[in-house]
Amino acid sequence: xxxxxxxxxxxxxxxxxxxxxxxxxxxxxxxxxxxxxxxxxxxxxxxxxxxxxxxxxxxxxxxxxxxxxxxxxxxxxxxxxxxxxxxxxxxxxxxxxxxxxxxxxxxxxxxxxxxxxxxxxxxxxxxxxxxxxxxxxxxxx
Length: 141
Fold this sequence. Notes:
Blueprint: E1 7-9, H1 10-30, H2 37-49, H3 53-59, E2 71-73, H4 74-96, H5 100-119, H6 123-139
Antiparallel strand pairs: 1-2
């Protein structure tokens, strides 16, 4: 029997993307940068303990079995979450150090990436694909 590919139902991924986007918009529009810690902690929990509270709560609202939804690759989503966690961390730390320009750069980057993903283009997926292509081409020489 072949190994089952781990996946996450698309509605849970979309919920997490919306949560990141709305957290960034709220934090920047209210100047309450501590709000960035909420998606940061959720992302860290997802990466370290495979328990993202945002997705876990959203799972309660699924109307069908998780397997009935379009699947998103778990490994790809972990990669994307790692990028989000790094950007949120750098943004939050920058704001706390009063490096506001750097804080805005990293925070806006993750906010835009999450919104662009909601619209259908995954920047993290593109980066990972290009990295794999680069490594493959390099292995040919």
